[in-house]
Amino acid sequence: MANSVGTVLTGLDDLRAGVEDFYKDLHAHPELGLREHRTAGKVAGALRECGYEVTEGIGTTGVIGVLTRGDGPTVMLRADMDALPVRENTGLPYASTVTVTDRDGVEQPVMHACGHDVHVACLVGFAQLMAKSRDAWRGTVVALFQPSEENGDGARAMIEDGLTSMVPRPDIVLAQHVLPYPAGYVATRTGSFLSAADSLRITLHGRGAHGSSPQAAVDPVVMAAMCVVRLQTVISRELAATTPAVLTVGSIQSGTGPNVIPDRAVLQLNVRTYDPAVRKQVLASIKRIVRAEAAGGDAPKEPEFEHLSSFPPTINDQDATDTVARAFAACFGDEARTAELQTASEDMSEIPHAFGAPFTYWCIGGIDSGLYDAAQKKGTISQDIPVNHSPAFAPVMQPTLDTGIKTLVAAALAWLAPEETSPEAQNF
What is the DSSP secondary-structure string of 6-68? Predict the structure, then answer.
């Protein structure tokens, strides 16, 4: 395979400037989930220009491009396109100044704070390289650009819109994510990689009264406060110390003034788990604790539970991941690592599950290596290195983009490259 990877990557020098410009344009023009119309148009145009058969508007804004070079496996590669309602604070010359009006009529800033612009630019660069090097591989490439990953509904929207009938069933589905590790870093992980995630909204009911007359009230603020404290014991006291899980109460909303006891309090919380049985246990414990606190506070009504969103766990296929890990070792040498378990979540796995196909998902680094090394020496990585979703998150353009393109090429050619007589490892 090494010979084919080298052949495909010989065109990278000529494409690099164009990929960088494409990336900067995406970064400066971010779009929220299911509104990625400009991004989808740019992607579709780039794919058509290099000969892909393109279908647009799948699940509202999703795009697929298909390129076939003779008989062989079908490899699907996925990138997510959406941005976040975050005001950018990177100081980049191509920083986003975009604002949009959300569904509630509120003006929101928008930023590519999670690195999806990196994913899109790398997959476009990969698609261009594969189109220019058709003699180096055999089979079918499916480049899939997914909307609304951040909301957890983009993959499902594409599937419900008939995705599985639009392209051949893939033999493998591949995807990657840029994370706050040094640029040039590449890492795979077999089995559990990303957690499942559940977001809940809980409404606690009380009885309002004047702040001077608490005896006339049932105070939902006190109930909410007790729930927040007690919910922290779900992970620390109901799960084994070796069982990874996270429970975060991210929002408490109640009342309008200091001298008025309100009639309700609303909690919003998020749960991260890796095992279906643990997920079931934690969600049940949340309901048990909240109901008990409401009963203990003499609430006039049962609390209400609303499931806002749910992400599946990302569990990499072992054989597929081993194959990609070998390809990365040949391509990147010592920079190819084993990834740590991540508490982030993704909806990407719904796509291979819909096809009944195996998948593997890996990560690349995006932080300037000098900056990262300095922070590591000082022991201040968590303070000095911006993470995904931070307003200061800005992957260094190179070698991040080159690395992301090379990973896609090396991984795809592990299935698409013809048999070769010289399989020795070769770094590129």
Answer: HHHHTTHHHHHHHHHHHHHHHHHS---TT--HHHHHHHHHHHHHTT-EEEEEETTTEEEEEEE
Q: How, if at all, do strands 209-210 and 260-261 pair?
A: antiparallel
Number of residues in the chain: 428
**CA 206, chain centre distance (Å):** 38
Cα–Cα distance between 428 and 426 in angstroms, integer? Answer: 7
Q: How far apart are CA 7 and CA 133, in angstroms?
A: 7
- In the DSSP assignment, the letter for residue 169 is P
For residue 243, pLDDT over 50 is answered with yes
Closest CA to 248 of 232, 225, 263: 232
Burial of 360 (0-12, 13-18, 19+ CB in 10 A): buried
Are 328 and 336 a contacting pair, CB within 8 Å? yes
Pairing of strands 304-311, 196-205: antiparallel
**Number of CB atoms found within 10 A of residue 196's CB:** 23
Position 147 scores a pLDDT of 98
Q: Mean pLDDT, to the nearest integer, of 102-119?
A: 92
Beta-strand pair 74-80/172-182: parallel
Helix 220-238, helix 276-296: angle, nearest 10: 150
| 381 φ/ψ sector (left φ>0, alpha ψ -120 to 50, else beta) | alpha
